Amino acid sequence: MESFKTSTDVLFVLLGAIMVLAMHAGFAFLEVGTVRRKNQVNALVKILVDFCVSTLLYFFVGYGIAYGVSFFGSATALTQSSGYDLVKFFFLLTFAAAIPAIVSGGIAERARFWPQVAATAMIVGLLYPFFEGMVWNGNFGFQSWMEAQFGHPFHDFAGSIVVHAVGGWIALAAVLLLGARRGRYSRDGGISAHPPSSIPFLALGAWILTVGWFGFNVMSAQKLEGVNGLVAVNSLMAMVGGTLAALIAGRNDPGFTHNGPLAGLVAVCAGSDLMHPLGALVTGAVAGGLFVWMFTLTQNRWKIDDVLGVWPLHGLCGTWGGIAAGIFGTQALGGLGNVSFMSQLVGSVAGVLIALIGGFIIYGLLKTLIGIRLDPEQEHEGADLAIHRISASPERETLW
């Protein structure tokens, strides 16, 4: 029976890893549908290559930094417990690889390819596992200190802060260092609209992400005995709240509407195992409205050209989610308790600071040493032709 239990845990985590792996197709098509047609191929290639580079760096470096585990022993040792440690690595890798996938949407249409690959290596190999280990493995005494100060450790069940906020705040640093796309803002204050190239692709990406998110959240239990239907229903309610709030705040705009469920799901990750479903609904609704408001503000008022709005979506909604776990996770508001508002606030701020400072260091170094932006002619031509020498939908075939 013990062997059977171990095998079911392996299958459980493996299925979660596969579902989150599928989410990377969602990241790809969300970006493909949002960017202009001349940058669609680049979006697809970036997501795939970033995932592969993330795998190598997390396997050889990052996972060891976060958990002190390496895979350089014999295959006999690796297959103990039916290879549970291996599928756990696979599952957590898909989380780590989400960071460059998030950043990709913010820097789309004007970032150079190989410098971004280098940034991915540094983020997934060093920066992300540094904070991941602090929260999910108690490295550097972080969680012990939080518990001693505020009565409870910092709670982030499925990564509102560890994954989403970190990715979103790294992206903000990259976007600010890159600058806006050429022609996006004029000197007289005018704004050139770049509408989504394909609403169907955008919607497809959002749906793939939404479905995969139930593996992202539910399988974060990492053991079959820890699975709880509360996480699934809370994820559902946050998704619904985020969608409807974005629909109303965005005045029926399909781009906002399809990002609404993602905003809600980002926010509920941290406290999805603690909240009452009504608390999850409110958390998601606040996130949906927050995304629309802040996306509009950053694009139109602050002139921050974050193409997919990844800072409002992942950075701000993720930060809200970390704090919301300390509000709606309390027994007074119907939650399960064992959470401290101050722990959630301090832990969330710590994640923001580490991500923002780390993002500026990584992209600042790359900008200084090798440059991170396409030249004006390449940007005008589009990343597809400039980098990959082919467009997503050639208007004519080459005849010999």
Please describe what this structure looks like.
This protein has 400 residues and is an all-alpha fold. It has 16 helices and no strands. It has helices at 2-34, 40-67, 75-78, 84-96, 98-106, 113-136, 142-150, 160-178, 199-218, 229-249, 254-268, 277-301, 310-328, 341-369, 376-381, 383-388. Helix 2 runs parallel beside helix 6 (113-136), helix 9 runs parallel beside helix 11 and helix 11 (254-268) crosses helix 12. The longest helix has 33 residues, at 2-34. The protein is globular. The chain starts with a helix and ends in a 12-residue tail after the last helix.
Strand content: under 5%
Structural class: mainly alpha
End-to-end separation in angstroms reads 67 Å
Radius of gyration: 21 Å
Gross morphology: globular
- Give the count of helical stretches: 16
Number of β-strand runs: 0
Taken in chain order, the helices and strands follow as HHHHHHHHHHHHHHHH
Helical residue percent?
over 70%
Round the mean pLDDT to the nearest integer and report it: 96
Low-confidence segments, given as residue ranges, are none
Largest sheet entry: none
